[in-house]
Amino acid sequence: MGYERALGHWQKLFSEIYGQKNMAMAADQVAQRLVEEVGELVHPINTFNLREIKKSIADLLPWICGLATRLGIDLEEAMYHKYCEHKPGKSYGSLDMFALIGKKAPDVLEDWQDLLKESFKEENANITPPSMIAKLVQDIGATSRSLRHNTEAKALADKLAGVLGWTLAISNKFEINLAQITWEKYQGACWKCLAKPCRCTSLTRVFVSHASELESDREEVISIIKNRQIQLDVIGFQDISQFTQERMTEALREIAGCDGGVILLGSKFSPNVYAELLFMLAKYDPRNVWIFVKGKNTETRDPMLIDLIEEMKRSRQVHTYETPLDLQQKISLLIQDRMEELRQPIY
Ligand SMILES: [Zn+2]
Question: Which of 28, 73, 104, 342 lies 20 to 30 A from 320 at CA?
Answer without folding.
Answer: 342
